């Protein structure tokens, strides 16, 4: 400190004005003349070591705080490195001049830049609400019970320990062996007097499953495949057997309305039905053995590809967990139907609305499993696996429903996953080229993106009539 001359006139003046002191009063506190203090404030005299110590003692300020240029320069360089203004300065000389001659102005610039970055981060946090043009933000409208349920599922690990324990006990009582469907039908008739009957589509035009309390019959639509008939039967059974357990889980979630609790009861029932068809420990052991190959797991447990993938996202039991998978389901219009898994879906970094995701490419290759390495703007990398899912059987003249399920995992944590074989042998995920994605076009600042569908909210559009970029929406 003694070898370096520190000129901190604006800082001394700001300190004096903040404390409401005149130059005469402050000079008296420091034991110097008012004229000498005036020279210091005009940066015509440096601060001496003795004066720095006096300032620290009298006003309880650390001496390092008076080194304006040393503290401002790194922050200013970082701010002016922003692509929005990086071309405005030719060299670091102007930044150094700004820090030395007008530190107050420099700090104001830094505050503005910090506010700008914080606003951009808040927009990213709301990416799922602002991703679609022409749609009102959910924040501006009513918050529906379905929205609350989705938020809960997206922001917690998709694992219900009590449900898993209750399902295991239920499975031991059933003793299904090779025929879970037969065991469930027998249990429903024995314990509740419920019979199961499959009806033609004409008799169930708007239902896939309907329980008639008067006749004690559970009707299933013939539109359902054998796998889906088993799932609907298991769902009915677990909602009856696990009524108290599901109520305990609902109480812990603290939902705000009865409608939200009803919807969440169905989601937990769906979870329990998957757990019954794919018991936790046997499923995890099989998953490890086949390296999380979803096709093999679906065949072994006689479930659909989507059901096996969804079960992978629930393997979060402490001490007996699989890779932290998360799920995203979309339709051909880009509507995100479900998001869950891992420790909450990584919504901010991963998003789900980027057209470069393999989930959108999967629609052009139905029935084929696609696996790609993708990278978000903050450098996070994910192994993303996508495949189409077909809905109920459609009759002639009806348009079948088709969605895509994307299952993902952080690239650094996908060791032992078969889909990582697409990576060259011996290569580390961080060393490979990845497909660059964003949260949504409105919030993505990647330049020259051929898939860009909307201009970013955080950048001004380019209006250069002499040049045109690769993207449909050029921006600065």
From TrEMBL:
<keyword id="KW-0804">Transcription</keyword>
<dbReference type="InterPro" id="IPR010982">
    <property type="entry name" value="Lambda_DNA-bd_dom_sf"/>
</dbReference>
<dbReference type="GO" id="GO:0003700">
    <property type="term" value="F:DNA-binding transcription factor activity"/>
</dbReference>
<dbReference type="InterPro" id="IPR018653">
    <property type="entry name" value="ScfR_C"/>
</dbReference>
<protein>
    <submittedName>
        <fullName>Cro/Cl family transcriptional regulator</fullName>
    </submittedName>
</protein>
<dbReference type="GO" id="GO:0005829">
    <property type="term" value="C:cytosol"/>
</dbReference>
<dbReference type="Pfam" id="PF09856">
    <property type="entry name" value="ScfRs"/>
</dbReference>
<comment type="similarity">
    <text>Belongs to the short-chain fatty acyl-CoA assimilation regulator (ScfR) family.</text>
</comment>
<dbReference type="GO" id="GO:0003677">
    <property type="term" value="F:DNA binding"/>
</dbReference>
<keyword id="KW-0238">DNA-binding</keyword>
<keyword id="KW-0805">Transcription regulation</keyword>
<dbReference type="InterPro" id="IPR010359">
    <property type="entry name" value="IrrE_HExxH"/>
</dbReference>
<dbReference type="Pfam" id="PF01381">
    <property type="entry name" value="HTH_3"/>
</dbReference>
<dbReference type="InterPro" id="IPR026281">
    <property type="entry name" value="HTH_RamB"/>
</dbReference>
<dbReference type="Pfam" id="PF06114">
    <property type="entry name" value="Peptidase_M78"/>
</dbReference>
<feature type="domain" description="HTH cro/C1-type">
    <location>
        <begin position="12"/>
        <end position="66"/>
    </location>
</feature>
<dbReference type="InterPro" id="IPR001387">
    <property type="entry name" value="Cro/C1-type_HTH"/>
</dbReference>
<dbReference type="InterPro" id="IPR050807">
    <property type="entry name" value="TransReg_Diox_bact_type"/>
</dbReference>
């Amino acid at each position: 400190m003694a070898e370096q001359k520190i000129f901190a006139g604006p800082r001394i003046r700001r300190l004096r004005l903040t404390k409401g002191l005149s130059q005469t009063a402050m000079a008296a506190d420091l034991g110097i003349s008012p004229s000498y203090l005036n020279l210091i404030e005009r940066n015509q005299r440096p601060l001496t070591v003795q004066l720095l110590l006096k300032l620290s003692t009298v006003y309880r300020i650390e001496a390092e705080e008076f080194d304006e240029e040393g503290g401002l320069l790194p922050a200013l360089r970082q701010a002016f490195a922003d692509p929005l203004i990086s071309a405005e300065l030719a060299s670091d000389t102007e930044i150094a001049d700004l820090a030395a001659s007008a530190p107050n102005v420099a700090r104001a610039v830094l505050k503005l830049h910090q506010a700008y970055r914080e606003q951009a981060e808040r927009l990213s946090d709301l990416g799922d609400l602002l991703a679609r043009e022409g749609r009102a933000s959910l924040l501006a409208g009513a918050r529906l019970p379905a929205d609350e349920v989705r938020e809960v599922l997206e922001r917690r690990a998709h694992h219900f320990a009590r449900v898993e324990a209750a399902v295991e006990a239920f499975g031991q009582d059933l003793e299904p062996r090779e025929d879970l469907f037969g065991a469930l039908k027998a249990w429903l008739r024995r314990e509740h007097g419920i019979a199961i009957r499959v009806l033609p589509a004409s008799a169930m035009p708007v239902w896939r499953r309907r329980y008639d309390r008067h006749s004690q019959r559970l009707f299933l639509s013939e539109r359902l495949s054998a796998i889906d008939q088993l799932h609907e039967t298991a769902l009915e059974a677990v909602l009856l057997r696990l009524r108290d357990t599901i109520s305990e889980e609902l109480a812990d979630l603290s939902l705000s309305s009865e409608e939200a609790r009803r919807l969440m009861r169905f989601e937990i029932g769906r979870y329990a039905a998957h757990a019954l068809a794919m018991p936790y420990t046997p499923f995890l052991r099989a998953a490890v053995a086949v390296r999380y190959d979803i096709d093999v797991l679906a065949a072994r447990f006689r479930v659909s590809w989507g059901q096996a993938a969804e079960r992978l996202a629930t393997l979060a039991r402490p001490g007996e967990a699989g890779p932290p998978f998360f799920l995203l389901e979309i339709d051909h219009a880009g509507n995100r139907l479900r998001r869950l898994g891992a420790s909450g879906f990584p919504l901010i970094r991963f998003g789900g609305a980027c057209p470069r995701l393999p989930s959108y490419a999967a629609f052009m290759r139905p029935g084929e499993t696609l696996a790609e390495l993708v990278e978000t703007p903050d450098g996070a990398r994910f192994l993303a696996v996508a495949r189409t899912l077909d809905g109920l059987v459609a009759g002639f003249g009806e348009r079948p429903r088709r969605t895509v399920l994307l299952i993902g995992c952080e690239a650094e944590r996908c060791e032992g996953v078969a889909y990582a074989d697409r990576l060259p042998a011996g290569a580390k995920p961080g060393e490979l080229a990845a497909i660059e994605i964003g949260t949504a076009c409105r919030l993505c600042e990647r330049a020259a993106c051929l898939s860009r569908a909307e201009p970013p909210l955080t950048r001004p559009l380019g209006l250069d009539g002499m040049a045109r970029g690769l993207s449909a929406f050029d921006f600065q």
